Amino acid sequence: MVSSASTASLLLPLPSCSSSEESDDGKPLPPLTAQEASSPPPSQLKRRRGRLERDYNVAMKALALSGDVDEVLAVFAELRRSLADAGDGGAAPNVLCYNTLVNALAEAGRTEEALRALDEMLASGVAPNASSHNILIKMHARRSEFDLAWELIHKSEMEPDAATYSTLIAGLCRVGKVAEAWGVLDWMLEKNCLPMVHTYTPIVQAYCREGRIEEAKLLMVEMERLGCLPNVVTYNVLIRALCDSGRFDEVEQILVDSRTKDWNPSTVTYNIYMNGLCKKGKTKEALEQLDVMLGEGMDPTAYTLSILLNCLCHDSRLLDAIYLLERSTELKWHAGVVAYNTVMSRLCEMGKWMSILKLLTDMIKKGIEPNTRTFNILIHSLCVVGKFSLAKSLIQSEGFAADVVTYNTLLHWSYHCGKLTGANRLISAMEEKNIALDEVTYTIIIDGLCREGKFDAATGYFLKSLKIGLSMDVLTVLLNRLACADRIWEIHRIFDEKDFIPDHLVFNLTIRTLCRASYCHYRDFYKLNLILDKMLERK
DNA sequence: ATAGGGTTAG
Prior knowledge:
Keywords: Repeat, Transit peptide. This protein has 539 residues and is mainly α. Among the domains are: 1-23 and 45-128, no CATH class; 282-369; 437-539. The chain has 30 helices and no strands. α4 (69-85) packs antiparallel against α5 (95-107), α11 runs parallel beside α13 and α23 packs parallel to α25 (439-451). It binds one DNA strand of 10 nucleotides through α3, α5, α7, α9 and α11.
């Protein structure tokens, strides 16, 4: 279990609020007066409680917004302690605080902990409200448990509102089930529940993700017709899609039009635009947008800085990037862990190990805590400069939760250094620590084993990988290796496996791979025939 | 006062 929830809630201090920009207004609570401390009247006690909960909730939300879930946990624990000390028998925090906590955990993908927090809330006798209900539905939707979500909506006494349906629609759209999303929309209309921007925006986003930009635009026109005006979020979704396909003229047009429409671009809008320009190599234009944004009186956020640094790094202006990073505090630009990670990973690609170390010490000095990604970059760069053993020993470091990326990095370099037993030990360690192997892991293992001539073992890992679903990337790597090494019996073994369900894409890939490996030559043609037969058996 | 849109690692 990676969860540092319990330890974090015991050990971490109150939020200093220095890391998050929004929470500076969280004034310290006034100290108890002597009278309050001895035996405050119940009404005053209640007021104090309310104030305490509100202030803590504000802080928790700010932290959740800046993605600092562990801090949210810490603040919640602190709140619980304060309430216990406040004198009325250790009453639990109210629903709103619990909702903030559960939602922050759910957003961070820490579903188990979110569910535990929810259980704890119920056990403390705190009654859930409509929001708690919606958050739970969102969790089910995120895990693609739509049946459960639907069941919850029906059997609950809570009357589903537009937010409930919108949550479900968003979940469906996330996994590309747009038709089902429309189905829910129809259902809510039947129930006389009026859709809102939150209902349509996920559908617009789903269209955008599939590259159906024109349909997305049409839907936005339809929204206007229905009096459900697209807002800044809807436009941001569209702008991102336009950026991804390089349609910057249209982005400009939308920004111009915004002045006569009912929405205003936000910092996020410019972040999206700048990042889009940067990804298409238009550094100069991206920096121009920064000026536009500052001219509009908008403050850059931690995101803005990371995007700009990324931009500079891609333009190989590393010295500028490092300079900006070092000066960020005096410029009042918020450098966060992502900003440092961005620059460090670029330095890593260039093998500048000493510079990475310097940035690492800088960030720690500034009180910015390195996260798992920071460690992964560190480990990767150690591998690049040939310090593999040192890199490997870093997994044991205190306070660092190695994840699948960490292990993938180490695995890749184990094979690279020819350390097969070491690689096997790493795989066992993953299993012990319940870190699930992903597509990348299997690709690395299969490629590594094949390079050592261990085709049988590699094929075995491929068959194992089917448990997490067929990945064309993994299959491509294996087929290439097997074909080049003329290991047709292993290819047979793949097609014999009953868990392997080949479709036309698989057939296509197999035949193309074999032909490229010169199986079309007349002397080898019989082998191709054998495999074709095998494939047709499975049809 | 629950929700949505933006950045980094293999």
